[in-house]
Amino acid sequence: MFKKIYTFFASLKLTIFLFLFLAATSILGTLIPQGLNPEQYQELYNPRLFSIFDFFNAFDMYHSWWFTLLLVLLSVNVVFCTFPRIPRIWRLTFRGKKIIDDSIFASSPIRKTIALQKNTPGIEQQSADIIKALVATPVKEEKDGRIYLFAEKGRYSRLGIILVHLSIIFILAGGLIGTIWGFNGQMLIVEGEQSDIVTLFSDAGTKKLDFSVRCSDFAIDFYETGMPKEYRSDVTIIEGEKERISGSIRVNHPLKYGGMKFCQATYGIAGVKNLQIFAKNTTTKDEIILHLNMMKKVSLPESDTFFAIAKFSPDYEGRGPAVLGVVIESDRPHDIFWIFGDNGKTDNQKAGNFTFTLKDFEKIYYTGIQVSRDPGVLLVWFGFVTILAGFILSIFLTHRKMWIRISENQNGGEIKIAATTSGDRKDFEKNLERLLAASVAE
Amino acid sequence: MNDTFIISIVTFIYFFSALTYLTSFIFGTKQLDRAALVVTVVGGIIHTAAIIFRWIHSYRLGIGHAPLSNFYESLVFFSWAIIIVYLIMRKRYSNSLIGAVGMFFAFLPLAYASLSGKVIADIQPLIPALQSNWLISHVISSFLAYACFAISFGSSILYFLKLKSRATFQHILPDLDFFDDITYKMISIGFVLLTLGIITGAAWADCAWGRYWGWDPKETWSLITWLIYGSFLHARLAGGWRGVKMSVISIIGFMAVIFTYLGVNYILSGLHSYL
Q: pTM for the whole thing?
């Protein structure tokens, strides 16, 4: 029973099944949009399909219980495949430095026996040359009148594949730690204001931080072509009453504080300030520039009416930026109308004796800062380093060992050759034959 | 003379080289194979010069950055990567037919970039998301991986050609094992480079988007590609699979590569909108 379970979890079939099944389901996850809200899905799919998808968590597939189960199964598969192989690979890597080992000539995967003519001169040198060409400069020992030559190279090669598989466990474990103990969300802060609330992604609610983030300024720079060059939020971290650190957050240049990372993610226009409205009295021809802010009324000259701005639109009905002006008479809104800039396309807005034009304004931005904490990330980086180290070991190194035993006596004698390689065995044998043909051809 | 003009010339050089390799294969002449190699190397040198020239030119425009930042530049670099991988692999697998296929694959992206008229070839300034030290290592490792997979795809196609063709044609083709071996070697190197591409991408994403993995379509498709080639390597190394099944997986794998490179950007949408 245990044997059956073990064979199942350690099987190559499971590995290939999991790889291809993960690939197939991942494709589905890129075809079905992830993380929209239910109304959007009901628009996309008919009710039947919607309920099927919903049942299988297809709308947040990569975090669903069954996708996580597949990843856990993969980890179990890696563990069952890797750990039982470690002792053997350890042995192949660290043992077997025995120079005198007569049994190797009977057990090694690559082996050969060559009969020697009587008094073959230079046989030892030739053997050493062959070992050097195929492996490395050999060491020599003598025992009972026999000469033993041995060389070894690239002995850590086989550890590479172990390292690669352990890395997968590190990376998956790091990912799991991050999912459980980390968080990821966004905070929207209007210029000049501060916030300590992070709205978490995938509908996970909000999180209150132990400190506040104040955004003193948000700025966009443009290239001459009009393409964006830089998005920058100048922020200060405030803990209690104390300002802890100040800095700029730019794309690719996050700010780190309290184990969290703050990245520039998005921005928008929250409102406008320092508005300038050009007002002209049509009867007296008097012109005046009104300086005002949102929802702050000013009096219009030579009248008992007031004027205020109630709303801003960055692009009202495709006619450019506009503000909603309100003329107030005896504390009642008398007239409400949109005021546009002087771009020649729109007539000035008339209200009573006045025409209004939007002269100038300053945008108040809000910045969207992505806040994340991931306690698993170090383990993931570690896994990335070890997987690359593992690949380098197994690609650039080939573990080769080679033994030659020369036994000479009055009648001639024999040469025994044994070798192991973690690389291409056929290739090794081909090269050995070539070298032997060249040297024993005497 | 600007770099896009030079690249359009290189396009023809590669096409000519592919034809020379093909002729060499059909008539079995070694001299033509040498000639095709010379043409390839000359093309490769001019190609490299054009990339360097574009790089320098971007600095003259005051928006200096490595020419790896838009669709046009990625096509030019993809072709360059195929040339590099081909020149390295031909030391061990010298065969005119592989040369013809390799050159044809190097020709295709260049032809689309310079002749289709659909790809904007202007040097554009770097948008904020691309202003990172990770750009160069991420793009180079990813496209060298794509190039390895392109060659393995070609060799898998040739495997089926050998398998299915008539006897008269069959005997001038190399052994099935020859193609099987190329497919395997190219995929194992491509797999390591793809892993490196994903890792540099993850490190970059962590810096730019605050997480190393977010199931963005580009990320997901790179993982899908990784899983397909991963199963190829397991089937071969641990399961001892050879031949037809391996070639099938290799061809499916390359479909995933193409989708990761192009399909994600033209069919799906996501953060990785600049290719």
A: 0.90
